[in-house]
Each structure stands twice: as structure tokens, then as C-alpha cells.
Amino acid sequence: MVCSLFRIASRVVATSLVFCSSLTDATSVWTITQAKRTVYASGNVATVDVRVQAKNTGSSTRKSFVISTTKLFGRPAHVVAYGSSVKNVLTVEGYNLTSSTTEDKNSAMIIEGQSSVAYSNYVVKFNKGIEAGKTVTFTYSMSLGIPFTPMPRTIHLYQRQFLQYHDTLYIPSVYPVESQVTNIELASSGTAVENIEPVDVGRKEQKSSNMVKFGPFDNVGVVNFFDKGQIDADGTALEKNTLMVHFSNQEHQTYFPTVKREIEVSHWGNVAFKESYELKHAGAAVTSAFNRVGFSWGDYRKRGMQAPENPVSTAMYEMNVVLPRTARNIHYRDEIGNISSSNARRDDRGYVLAQIRPRFPVLGGWHADWEFSYDVPTRSALKVDPEDPTLHVLNVTLSPPIVRTFTRKMDVEVLLPEGASDVQLFLPSNKVKSAEWLTVKNSWLDFFGGRPTVGFTLEDFYVPEKQILQYKFQVAYRQGALKVYYEPVFLSVLIWAFFLAYIALGRSTLRIATKKEGTLLDQREVARSVARASLDKFDSLVSTVEQLMKRADAHARTPVKHKWEPYVAKQKELMSAQTAELEAALTCHKAVYVGASGSAGEKLYDKTNSLLKSYLEHQLKHVDVRAGEEGYGSAASTEGKIESEGKGESKRRASVMEQLETKADCLEAELSESLRLLSEL
Length: 681
Hints:
Layout: H1 2-27, E1 30-40, E2 46-56, E3 62-70, E4 75-82, E5 89-94, H2 102-114, E6 119-130, E7 135-145, E8 148-150, E9 154-155, E10 162-168, E11 180-185, E12 193-197, E13 202-204, E14 211-214, E15 242-248, E16 254-266, E17 270-281, E18 285-286, H3 293-302, E19 319-323, E20 328-333, E21 342-346, E22 352-356, E23 367-377, H4 378-381, E24 382-384, E25 391-397, E26 407-415, E27 421-426, E28 435-441, E29 451-461, E30 472-478, H5 486-507, H6 515-557, H7 561-588, H8 590-597, H9 599-627, H10 635-645, H11 647-679
Parallel strand pairs: 1-11, 9-18, 16-26
Antiparallel strand pairs: 1-2, 2-7, 3-6, 4-5, 4-7, 5-6, 8-10, 10-15, 11-14, 12-15, 13-14, 16-17, 17-23, 19-22, 20-23, 21-22, 24-25, 25-30, 26-29, 27-30, 28-29
Helix pairs in contact: 1-2, 6-7, 6-9, 6-11, 7-9, 8-9, 9-11, 10-11
């Protein structure tokens, strides 16, 4: 037992000695001879630039340098590095993405072990190796979200806002620093500074200056920031020493606690972006009653009218949006509906710029939420490998299009076309996702399992305005060239099958009956169909009669006997043929009509036949009378009779014509009703 404990203790001591020696080797390869940190504290996002002059004190050529940022004061959101000029951009990677050499991996593990969870470490990759004993100068810049703390925390509507900026007194670095200085640059020279801590170190250079300076720390000597054994003059560890500047800042302190982006890819020509925003004003909370009068003054001044300036300066009125050149179908809405207080235009370079205004000015402590959506053509966002047509790469912007606003947490989901496979996600090297997932979502016309959806979460996200459209991520996937036609073909087949089923159901009869009953029902259905067809034939007969009556009236006015007699003979033959056809159709199904309703059906059948014959005879006689061929002569002879016999004969002829028309109408109505009753038996 004792021997076992002794062996375990020996291993622990040996491991500790190895770790300490490795730590010394990893952090002694560089020495920062001079460092200058400048904090730009004028907006709602602070920018920290650190210019570093470092010497390679190791024994070999080095191509990487580790930088540290603290998460205790503000949230580091965007870290970039560049050499002697801004155009000489250097690569910045997170530790979990460092995969160049085994030496860098080991150094990263050791540095992560010595720095607490309150710090984030990044690796800067130089374009060429720095030889031992040589010096390199570069600058790394980071954007800080939620960098300020309001003090006082609550104000009334017209009160000025004061903020506090906190940071570590010394520049966080895993390497020793020989000389360093920190400058806090405020918005303007007229910015009121209430307090500076520590008083013996920090100072405002001049009353008219907007710069607060801390350092240089010549009395401290070489600073090993993460060395627990090195303490300041007051006995405090260097890591725990902080600075503070309390100053006036009237800029709104808005940020997005959450942003949800949904990108839906369609191979039919469109990529849809749908984004949900939650906005919070992190400045001093307004506790007094809200008054819109001051905001109305600001609107009047924008229109060129004379009005006092708006005394409320910390409110957020509008936000600027930068969209790609091909953006279209822009929508801006919230839970109430469309928000019309927005406008969009194109700048000189063709980019789409939009200004969106919330329904109300956002004051300190207030929240707002809305949805913003737009589309871009597929050709501008989706590329296909010419050598492998199944390989598609989606290349879209990673940042929300709203500029100069920090995002605490952003969820991004990309809905790929149905049937996509081998999905791969590629993010910028300096962005580390906190979560990633691959699921399936169902959308419109998804018949074959739904859309593959790749999602990820980014925390503490911010991209400078000039880089928003160039800061992109990629999603690579495979999909067959013919799969794009699956949905329209399947939809066409589905519609065709629907109509086919409708036709089949319309032509089928679902019933439970014996064979004899079924035969009788079929006969009745046929008889009804014949009766309904007889109605159409009767309508045709009536049409023929009406046409013949019009010609008879014309013949009575202007008799042309050699043309009239052949025509009327032909039309009478046609009427007789139509009547005979009706009689034959009804006679064929007499048994069905009689069997369906017994004696009532037989009486109805006989009545219909009788009416049909009477109708034909009456109309033939009616034609002759109207043409003046039966008892009244032609129009010319009638005119002679009227002159000789007087008006009595004319009235009698008109009365006869009226009686004939009335009887024809009655016969037509009765016959039509009889045919209808037959069709309903």
C-alpha cells in the first residue's frame, strides 16, 4: 500500500516537472519588446488595436504567435491581424483549428492550461517564418461587444448618459512584455471624464484632448501577465489589476441578444434568407415617463422646419442594412405586420442599402424584435464543380446584414434541397462554433424524406461594416443532376392521378344489390339517361319550329311561293324525323318506365307520346296559318280583303294567331314537364 502511494506520488511530481519545463519552453520563444494598446470607446462597439513588436528568443524559426483576449470586460467578437500595413492581412485561428505542426499544438495545449477560462487565445500565422533572434512588428485588432457599463444605471428621459469602461491594466499576453502603454480614445475632446482608476497611473493628457493614457509601466519591469508569482507594487497579481474610465457617451448601446438566420436553398433559382432579431438597449435604463414631443422636433428638423433639437440623444432611431447587389423581395415585419418606416436604395457600386426603423425609438433598457427577409438568385450564391456536376458549394455571407451591432448568440440553419448528401460546413478560421447539428426539416412539396438541414451556433459575433459582404461561409453537398426534376414530375403524376381517380369514381356506382336488382337499376339509369337526352332533342325540335315560324312570317309579308314550298316541305320532314326519333327512344324503354312506377309510369308514358303527336300536328298547322296558306292567303291578298271587308276580318285573324301561339306554348310546357318527370322515375 505504501509502495503504491509512493509510486503514484513520484509520477505526479515527474508530470508536474515536465509540464513546468514545457510551459517555460512554450512561452519563452517570444519576448514582446514593445506593445501599444489603443481602445476606441466612441460607439456601441469598442475596438482594441494592439501594436506588437516581438523578438524570437527561441532557437528555431517561428511562424506563429499566440495572442490572448479577456472575456471579463466586454465580449471579444472579431479578431484580425495585419503586418506593417492594413493590406498585409495575417491569418488568425482559434486553438481548436490549429493543425499546422505538432509544436504549435503542444504550445497551444500548454498555454490553454495556464490561462483561465476567462481568456480566449488565438494563433497568428505569419506569411513567412521569423528566424531566431529576429524581430517582427504586427498589429492585432479585436472588436468588443457590450464593452461599457452604465453608471448610473438608471436615468430620466432627458438626462445625460455616463458609461464606465473596464479592462485589465496590463495587456494580456502569454509572453513576457518589456514595455507597454494603453490609450483610451474617447468620442471627442469635449467628452466629460468623471473618474479614472488607478489614479496614480491613468491620466488625461490635456484638458482639450480625447485621450486617456495608462503607462508606460517602467517601474514594473518585464511583465509576465499569467505568472501568479509576479505582483504589482500594491501586492496584487498582475492579472487582477484593472483600469477604469468613467466618461460621458450619448451613443445608443444596442446589441442583439439572439439572432436566428434561416437560409433556404432552391435549385429552381432562389436562395431565401429569413432572419429573426431580438434587440436590447444596454445603456442606462430610462425610468421616467416617455414623451414623444422631443422626437417630433427631430422629425420637423429633418424636413427643414425650424424646431428645437431633440433632447433625447441616447435613443436608437434606425439601423443600416447592407445587402448584396442581387438582393430582392425585401420584407421587414414584426408580430403586428409589415413595418412601413423603412426604405431601400442602390448605391453607386450597385449594393442594396436599406434603413429600417423600429415602430418606436429604443431607449435604455428597452427591447424590440422583428423579422427581416430577402432573396438572392441561386446563380450568385451556389456554384457547381464543372468536373463533378453533383458537387455543389453554397457561398453566402455569415454576418447579419445590419451593420455596427454586436450579436451575443447567433443560430444559423441552412435548408438544403431534398436529396442532398455528404454535407460539409466550412467557417472562417477565426470563428469557433459552439454547437453544430444536422437534422431534416419538411417544407413544401417534400415527398422523399425532407430537406437536410445543417445548423450551427456562434457566440460573441461581430463583423466590421466594410467586411460584412466579404465575410462568408460555405456549405458543400452532393446532389444528382436529375433529382431537381423529382418534385415537378411527382407533382404532375399526383395531379394526373387525382383527376383519374375523380373520373373513375364518377363512372362507378357503389351499391349492394342482387344481380336481378342490379340489372333493373342499370335499366332505370339508362332510361333516365334517355329521358334526359330526349329533353335535349326536344329543345332541338323547338329550335327548328321557332326558325320555321320566323320564315313563315317573312313569307306572309313577302310571298315567294317557288322558294317557300320546297323549304317548308324540307323543314316539315325534319320536324317529323325529330319527333319520330323521340318516340322511338321513349318506346324502347317503355317497360322500364312502366316497371318503375306501375300504372302511374304507364299513364305518364302515354301522356308524353300523346303530347308529342299533338305538338307536332299543332305546329305544322300553325306554320301554314302564319304563312297565310290556310284560310287567310298571303299578305297581299289579306291586305285586299282588309280593304274590302274592313277591320273585322283582320281582328279575327289576329285572334286566331294568338290562340295558336298560346296553345303551342302550353303544349311545349306540358311536353317538357312530362319528359322531365320521366327522367326522374
